[in-house]
Amino acid sequence: FFFFFKQKTAYEMLRSLVGSEMCIRDRVSTQSTWGILIEMEHTGDNSNPMTLNRHILSLQQQHKEATGDFTLLITSIATACKFISSKVRRAGLFNLYGLAGGSNTTGDEQKKLDVIANEVFISALKGSSKCAILLSEEEEHPITVETELQGKYVVAFDPLDGSSNIDANVSIGSIFGIWRKNDEGHEISDQDIMQKGTRQVAAGYCLYGSSTEMVICLEGHVFIYTLDPSIGEFLLTKTNLKIPSKGKIYSINEGNASIWEDPITEYIKNKKFPADNKPYSLRYIGSMVADVHRTILYGGIFLYPSDKKSAKGKLRLLYEAAPIAFIIEAAGGKATTGRERILDIQPKSIHERCGVVLGSVEDVDEVISLYEKFKKND
What we know:
The chain is α+β, with helices and mostly antiparallel strands.
């Protein structure tokens, strides 16, 4: 089924995936629904929902120079996420739990859904004809798109973040960051691949939980779109999302406490045993997308820092840390390694790792001040 994605539009891709008979029924249902929505719009009823495609198109119209390439790229990513969401929800029924029998380039054991999600993302992005290079957690080397299908965008993605939680039916997600080639006319080079997070055009993640939600950062604003399974569309449900300036929740794997660096040890101690007797609550899911999503909505801090065992951290810069940092900062938060801003890091390899501390400004600033304090003491 992966080959159905190639050289097809987003609509054709979805049609091929779900089957013609189901697609006909969905189209009838969708046409009926939109007939009602159009009527609502004309009568002034503000309950008319905004779909992802419609919203991106409305933003596109604000830029006279826009070609529509970016809109088609986002549509292809959304189509891939819809398909992955469907597979995640039916994983138990179709024996998609468990290991696939291999490991990825970073040493993580691959789950069956890891492999499926990776192939779906690659096929959808290639089929969009808007990408030049693809970077995946599951692939050792960059994927150069065939010349006849090449576009101007570079997309880095983690097709299924938190896959260690798949079998436990815990929320998982997909992460992606989008850059432009440095020069549309030249041959692909390392300069196109190794770009700082600040140069991202957009970034986002899709959370597969009690509902499927896609969070996208566009033009300095963060939007949430929720998948409505009845019409197969992502609908805009939150605009201009902002993270609280301070929270009451910290999120970290306390199993690593014995190897934490001193600033992290002191920070967590301060949150658990504060002078005002108002400790923070610990919430840790173990799936970055789920933990970050909660942090954005409720405030607080998410930490996956470098430590005495992993001096460079564990999370990957290009397809995990940089896209999430881009979203966090657009939402009014901060994202750092503790020593430097994540978006300012110059990548040296596609699977480069870094420490991650992100969330509400006041909470992250407290961690940064502790790193500075211990640096002076050294």
